[in-house]
Design goal:
The structure holds two protein chains of two kinds.
Chain A (H helix, E strand, L loop, with lengths): L4 E3 L2 E4 L5 E6 L6 E7 L6 E7 L2 E5 L6 E5 L5 E5 L8 E8 L10 E2 L3 E5 L1
Parallel strand pairs in A: 2-11
Antiparallel strand pairs in A: 1-3, 3-8, 4-5, 4-9, 5-6, 7-8, 9-10, 9-11
Chain B lengths: L2 E4 L4 E4 L4 E3 L1 E4 L5 E7 L5 E7 L5 E4 L2 E4 L9 E3 L8 E8 L5 E3 L3 E6 L1
Parallel strand pairs in B: 2-12
Antiparallel strand pairs in B: 1-4, 3-9, 5-6, 5-10, 7-8, 8-9, 10-11, 10-12
Classes of the chains: A mainly beta, B mainly beta.
Chain lengths: ~120, ~110
């Protein structure tokens, strides 16, 4: 059983650019959640995808968007990058069902630096 | 809204000392509670969880009990090791699947 994987490990972009981060969920999991962890802070919920549909969104602007594919892998896209977008982006997968909470398992994260 | 409050760090201990990291929460209903650990340069690993009042989660010598009357989920370990040095996050999952995290507590254990 493979765990959650993320790519790339590190990324450097400049302000105004666009970025795509990728996540492969743990085998058998159908739900992917994305979190942003600023330096020295706890992770903040960005959004969640369940069976290819958005299933909840945190307090992030629309330039943060996502996608989930039929194999339940996922992408996080951020447009018009700002300096404050520099953070560790974490993906977590779970075996969810509407109305049921399941434990989320995290990947190693992608460290994004915006210059 | 729902929230989690953790004691500020860093917590500095000698090897084999007793560890307590305090965590309290605010939530409507009956959330599930979690402790995650983050080692330097890595993502989050689930340490333990509890899904209802009076449940005790345990793993690798760490324990935490879900106390609804005090809205707490304090993390304890009887004898810490240098390898336990990491950042520990308390989190809750309420009516939705999203996790709400505390700000984290850094633990430093010296030999």
């Amino acid at each position: 059983e493979t765990g959650v994987t993320q790519s790339p490990t590190h990324l450097i972009k400049t302000r105004g650019q666009q970025v795509t981060l990728r996540c492969s969920s743990q085998s058998g999991h159908n739900t992917v959640s994305w979190y942003q962890q600023a330096l020295g802070q706890g992770p903040q919920f960005i959004f969640q995808y369940y069976r290819e549909e958005e299933n909840g969104r945190g307090n992030f602007p629309p330039r943060f968007s996502g996608l989930q594919f039929p194999n339940y892998s996922s992408e996080l896209n951020v447009n018009a990058l700002e300096l404050d977008d520099s953070a560790l982006y974490l993906c977590a997968s779970s075996l969810g069902d509407r109305g049921r909470r399941d434990t989320q398992y995290f990947g190693p994260g992608t460290r994004l630096t915006v210059l | 809204g729902d929230s989690v409050t953790q004691m500020e760090g860093p917590v500095t201990l000698s090897e084999e000392a007793f560890l307590t990291i305090n965590c309290t929460y605010t939530a409507t209903g009956y959330p599930s509670l979690f402790w995650y650990v983050q080692y330097p340069g890595e993502g989050l690993q689930l340490l333990l969880k509890a899904t209802k009042a009076d449940d005790k989660g345990s793993n690798k010598g760490f324990e935490a009990t879900y106390r609804k009357e005090t809205t707490s989920f304090h993390l304890e370990k009887g004898s810490v090791q240098v390898s336990d040095s990491a950042v520990y996050f308390c989190a809750l999952s309420g009516n939705t699947d999203k996790l709400i995290f505390g700000t984290g507590t850094r633990l430093q254990v010296f030999p």
